[in-house]
Specification:
Strand content: 25-35%
Helix content: 25-40%
Low-confidence stretches: 216-222, 271-281
CATH architecture: 3-Layer(aba) Sandwich
Mean pLDDT: 88
Distance between the termini: 29 Å
CATH topology: Carbamate kinase
Radius of gyration: 18 Å
Number of strands: 16
Number of domains: 1
Number of helices: 7
Strand order of the largest sheet: 5-10-2-1-13-15-16-14
Largest sheet: 8 strands, mixed
Shape: globular
Structural class: alpha/beta
Order of helices and strands: EHEHEEHEEEEEHEEEHEEHEHE
Amino acid sequence: MIVVKLGGSAPANSALGEVCADIADLMKADERVVIVHGGSAELARLAARMGVELRYLTAPDGVVTRYTNAATLELLTLALAGMVKPALVAELTRHGVAAVGITGFDAGVLRARRKRAVRTVSDGKVMIVRDDHSGRITNVDATVLDRLLDCGLVPVLSPPALDEDGRSVNVNADRVASAVAVALAADCLVFLTDVPGVLRDPDEPASVVPRYHVAERSAVVRGGMGIKLVAAGEALAGGVRRVFIASGHRNRPVASAQAGRGGTEVILAAIDQPDERISPA
């Protein structure tokens, strides 16, 4: 059982084709596969077309997250469910993969707890934001995914999720992938991104760290790679045997990552063992 997370930056058609061809080969080998995807690039394009400004919140510890007000949540849902997902399902189908696209809404697959108050720093002052429609995953209904898998289908899953009041909330797709992998007792979780892996030097693509030891819920590094490492730690702590972070822009990216041909394997460290102090992009 493999969970593949496709990054939110839209890959070139050739790269997406390689990913889908890889998924097709896995299916031919009777592997069960679930795909989780984001859509930040498509969201940015859609927001520009609609004249909606995308804003970000900077927490006191420096972590930057997207501010998801009502308008942004509508655009996010449209970008993921109406643009990214259909294109991905169509490409998988073209490669002979029987895929079905679902969001966290469908049959309540993803449940989350909404963040009622978010602290952010603006002009040096800490402020409280209470209209942010984002949350953290609390439950994955593995039954729905298992039934799709039993039918020989590849579920293609994305945020948003439903909160405790049955309302839509944005959730981080990397942590969704981690939670899905844990819920399905997956053997492997692969994060495909637009960089070669975890980098010692963010300006040097060749500085890939082959193995990165991370403690559960660690946040040593910031930005997109930082949250991937947090999600990786949560997956490993939840029983997923192997987690990889690798480029989606190469031949057979999933198989290559699993075989150790490029990318980074994330390994869960003891709680008292320090993480590698590097600054990946």
